[in-house]
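User: quick one, fold this
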Amino acid sequence: MGLARGLTMLNTRKRKVKLTKAKIAELETRWRKHNKHMKSMGLHAMRYEKFEDYVDYCYGKRTTKDFKIVRSPLTPVETPRMKASREHREKYPSLPMGHAINGKGTKDDRWESEKKTISSGYTVAPAYNKGAYQVIGKSNIKDIGR
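Assistant:
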């Protein structure tokens, strides 16, 4: 025969923990180790000021949600290499991207027109039965497929 609705045979009662001197000594060393670890991680708010608070936390009487975590804004550390790179960029600024596109850069129009006239005498085609491309003069275009 089953139990009435809402009743259970499971024992859900929390048992009281007996703290012996050895257990207290072990908890104290774990408390110190925990505080040291949290301090090294920069989580000072997660440290337990009192030993009793840590014992309560270990046995489920207090959770980490009871703490208000305070985080300071991250300030980047400038290494000597980063400082040298920044000073170099300030001393020798590069050309902004917009200037080269608008034709205000160091583009030489005479050389560009000369390249066009030189390249008009050549064509690019794949070699016969090969995968690579080659530059072929206009006079040899008829021999490309042979």
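User: anything notable?
Assistant: The chain is about 40% helix and 5% strand.
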